[in-house]
Design brief:
Layout (H helix, E strand, L loop, with lengths): L7 H43 L3 E2 L18 E8 L5 E7 L5 E11 L4 E10 L19 E8 L4 H4 L11 E2 L4 H8 L7 E6 L18 H43 L6
Parallel strand pairs: 1-2, 3-7, 5-8
Antiparallel strand pairs: 2-4, 2-6, 3-4, 4-5, 6-8
Helix pairs in contact: 1-4
């Protein structure tokens, strides 16, 4: 009755099914790993945002590489803004996906070290983005600032090329080593995304808080792949039963016609 399973068509179908099952199981495992990784990153972000603010020099120093656990930690500092050596970071977008600049202002601490402060987003003055834009001034004199600690930007991490020959006072990446050479100063590793004091007139536009990665979506994908893996043998069995039934129905009339009549 099931001799048709040895046919070329069914052998190929069975081999494909046998390949699909472990492939789908592995895809589900991969999605579960992605779920765990994203959940762990979300927890790190939540822990960092919820941690008590600390002075910036407790977490970073000149030449220091900001770690994953230190990223997004709220830090404080006292000093003054050095607007004479202010720069803008090209090709940055705001919450509405409008292209403009991030304002990067050196903040000179009371001990003489420099902290890079990303004050937020401003629109570009023109389509070419070659002219240095008009930037609202930060508070003058000695002030206290608060912000989220961020690691140096690199091409490898951001995908942004660090182009040369840019217009004056414009950069592609925020990098403390690069700024230390330009400023000829002791620059703390990483930078901060300013959260306080708030700008007057809402310009520069403050940077938003980091969002959570959609970890539950990966969990759902994992379950989906495993359901698909379970469905393959069920589907194969249903097709085989249907094929056997159709073949039995096709041969039944022929057997009736060839049966000798009873005397």
């Amino acid at each position: 009755m099931y001799r048709f399973l040895l046919s070329r068509q069914w052998v190929i179908l069975t081999l494909v099914a046998l390949l699909l099952i472990p492939t789908m199981i592995r895809l589900g495992i991969w999605q579960m790993h992605r779920y765990e990784e994203r959940s762990a990153r979300n927890q790190l972000v939540a822990d960092a945002l919820g941690a008590k603010p600390v002075p910036v020099e407790e977490l970073t120093s000149p030449g220091h590489t900001v770690t994953t656990k230190q990223r997004y930690r709220t830090v404080t500092a006292e000093g003054h803004f050095d607007t004479d050596r202010e720069q803008v970071v090209r090709r940055r977008v705001n919450a509405d996906e409008e292209v403009g600049f991030h304002v990067l202002t050196p903040f000179v601490l009371t001990d003489g070290k420099v902290l890079l402060v990303n004050r937020g987003w401003i629109p570009a003055d023109g389509l070419s983005q070659t002219a240095f834009p008009k930037i609202p001034a930060p508070p003058s004199g000695r002030v206290a600032v608060t912000g989220r600690l961020m690691p140096d930007e690199t091409t490898e991490a951001s995908g942004i090329k660090n182009l040369k020959g840019l217009p004056d006072r414009q950069v592609m990446l925020i990098n403390s080593e690069q700024e230390a050479r330009r400023l000829d100063a002791r620059v703390l590793g990483g930078y901060i995304a300013l959260t306080a004091p708030e700008p007057k007139g809402d310009t520069p536009e403050p940077l938003g808080e980091p969002g959570n990665e959609n970890a539950p979506l990966n969990y759902a994908y994992a379950i989906q792949w495993w359901l698909f893996a379970a469905g393959v043998p069920i589907g194969w069995f249903i097709l085989a039963r249907r094929e056997a039934r159709d073949r039995a129905q096709a041969t039944a009339p022929q057997e009736t016609e060839t049966t000798p009549a009873a005397v």
